[in-house]
Here is the input.
Amino acid sequence: MNIIKATDYNDMSRKAANIISAQVTLNPSSVLGLATGSSPLGLYSQLVERYKQGDLDFSRVKSVNLDEYLGLAHDNPQSYYYFMNENLFTKINISPENTHIPDGMATDGQKACEEYEQAIRALGGIDLQLLGLGNNGHIGFNEPGTGFEQLTHCVALTDSTIQANSRFFEKPEDVPTKACTMGIKSIMMARKILIIVNGKGKADIVRKAFFGPVTTEVPASILQMHPDVTLVADAEALSLCTL
Ligand code: GLP
Here is the structure.
């Protein structure tokens, strides 16, 4: 695993943007796996800036998002569909038909998950998958205990994730309790993985995930087995690790 230490959130965002920029420049038809949450916000604004400066062209890029809440419509500001359009897609020249996000309003969630996995394969698989790290070690919405062999599937979120995500919702009862997520196997099939982590609050889970045993209790720990992973983390997130 390649570990890049950043000084702070902005530095992490710039360093991660360098990696995505290199990917898109070297392979303009890349399939990017994208993530939501607070971690990638700075990275996305970096990509937007670089696009505006004429340094990046997304016209042939395709994207697949990691996950989506079940029960939130596209126009719900908390849906990941809304998030991606607001923070990235409408600010760069990616074609809307080249962007893919699981359908949060699917009536048959299981079928939608299977179709999503097939769509990823039809694109030729993911060239570079961006990930954030959940407080309990989840990636996408693969919560502790999820089998490593899972493909895209529906999940019931754990209390800790519902609690962590409640900061984005007005009322606790508005926080979705279910989601559709790429599985660990879907993520591990990506040719390259970039995971970004910042802040003191994640220092303990960073140590467990990248320096502890590989266990389904810490889903991100499986990334230790992937042949091409880059962790970009700030000094606070790496503060409990001996590099
Ligand atoms: C959510 C998302 C994950 C994300 C995680 C961390 O649960 N499903 O994909 O990585 O939150 O979020 P944050 O970056 O805000 O800490």
Summary: The CA atoms of residues 200 and 236 lie 5 Å apart.
